[in-house]
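We emphasize that the prediction below concerns an isolated chain of 369 residues; any contacts that depend on oligomerization or on bound cofactors are therefore not represented. The input was used exactly as deposited, without trimming of termini.
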Amino acid sequence: MDRRQLLMRGMALGMSIPALTRVAYADSMAEAQAIVDKYAVKVDKWDGPTTGPKAKEGQTIVNLAGDMKNGGIVGVTKGLEEAAAAIGWTVKTIDGAGSVAGRTAAMNQAMALKPNGITILGFDAVEQAPAMKAAFDAKIPFVSWHAGPVIGPMADAGVFANVTTDPMQVSTAAAMWAYIDAKGKPGCIYFTDSTYAIAVAKAKKMQEVIEKLGGTTVEWVDTPIAETSQRMPQLTTTLLQKHGAKWTHSLAINDLYFDFMGPSLAAAGIAGSGQAPVNVSAGDGSESAYQRIRSGQFQAATVAEPLNLQGWQLVDELNRAVSGEKWSGYVSPLHVVTKANVEFDGGPKNTFDPGNGYQDAYKKIWGKA
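Result of the prediction step, given as a token string:
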């Protein structure tokens, strides 16, 4: 079985987990615990590519960041800039500032610079279809992070490779953690943003998992992730008044939703340490999320992505693209972060940064070791 077949098989298995028949409470709980435990261990072995093209010298790339207020995008950008320095490339990062207009302006600016390649972080590739077609016609390759619900090539959108953990596995792990924490009886509010197809897909998967296991959906909240600072304080108060004890767990598609819930929860006498609602995020493992988890206040778990590693992978995929080779096929690992394991795999730096030697592995591929 080749790497692509293994990838597809793994994705299929990941998506089949929530469909398990709920034969008995004990069986469901054991199954959920096994999945959570699988993703809560140390990640200390490199399982990514070991071969690929040597570095294409003298490349200039533009990094289009959807919103530099988003901790996930900031983390990936740092990794990308670090990797670009290692491979010997010049990179310019442009902030889309969290709006369609801002991203369109950033895309236009990127095209004017005539780079050798473009990375897009944290916004839907379809949104910028006209500009992406122009880049495709100009033979400028795109790689992306979280530009859609697909892992790898997105041919219809003109993306050479979309880098992400498996979003369905991320959502499954978050939902199962909430199910275990609620002792099999979670009452969940889901926070998502319909601006992004991947955000909707992740929230639907969390809801599916919870309901298959016998939990309850309290409410589905669709609110723009770029407006969480303005919306979440009052929204949190309203939801507490509306649902009371029925709301046991929050499941959000990104840690950013919880950045602005704290004051409203504190005003209601909810300090954390297991008090409902317990906040759980299906990505990305931001610095603020780590701090909340460590302190035991306002967030209990996040399913973190290896943001710095993914920045390195973006550079590697772009090197493959400009060298005329296929994408690597690599799907980066996810990590269930709780207070019990927050201090390893990069935890002291408030990020999931696997100690698996990925920087050295990529440098060796590029001939930069």
